[in-house]
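Give me structure tokens for this 329-residue protein.
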Amino acid sequence: MLRTNLTAIVLLSLIAPLIPTPGVAAASTPNAQYSVGLTNGAVSVSLNLNLLQNATLLSFEKSFTLPLVHVSAVGSNSTNLAQELQGALRSKNPKAQVNNLNLQVVSSSWSNKTATQWLNISLSFSVTGVSTTQGETARTDLSWKSFAVSSDYPVGNVEINRIGEKYLSGLAADMGVHSGSSSLIQIFYHVNGRPIDSTQFQSAVNNMTILDFSSFETPVSKWQQSQVSVTGETWSFTGGRGLGMVYTQEITEGGQLSTAAYGLFYDLTGTVTAPYGAQVAGDTVIFATGGFTEVAMVGIVFSTVVLWSGAFLFERRIQGKTGRKKTKR
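Here you go.
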């Protein structure tokens, strides 16, 4: 019994580092607003956009709020949106096919406590027609990842893409009027991170679209790569910070400078996740179709045999020393 326990303990201590622990790895993975996942023969896309507005705080915009919405599009109700997305993807890859689309749009009410209101747009779908397999090697084209939808798209009475034109045009006009700068106050305007003149602010806001991911044009090979766990490879990229419409006041008082930003803004970061050992060439991800699991299991079985033999010899050696000590007595 002692021999069995000793062998098991030694073996477990040696083999434990070889066992994949995806749960631990997932816990350390930062949340991205735009995620693309690759598995054998499938590409999944998940978008989770959290837009925050605080323009209601402005003294001349106390009555402004986004409408309260809670809408979804799935199955047959999502056909038109799927076609819009597919058209955008096919401008990058003519063979791209959008399937299994699911859309959820929810907004919160204005909160005086946090001085914010949220609009969340969650969209998921799968993409086929962009992968080829030769032998045990798969190649997936991700050039379509920087797709952009320019047209409006209403779900019921709720616009989900051209929200600038639908919900923010009046706000932008009011902000444009309040452009008075002085030696104490400076006003700045930005749309999607770009500085805009006050006279062009409303027009730029009207052209804002949410389903615009052109900022991910950079090839995946130039994204930051990190091996999140032994079960997969991940590439990360920041598409933009503080996107949306921003009205900034810089106030100098008593020699001190203070800055306050108002508007509707959000961040956009992206990740691409592929099986362990995957490599990229431009926007093409190359990986073994067997995936990590099969390779890992073979490796672990082989390592188990080797380590078990080592553990057995280690145990015999210890028992031999113990036996010699007893003999001396």
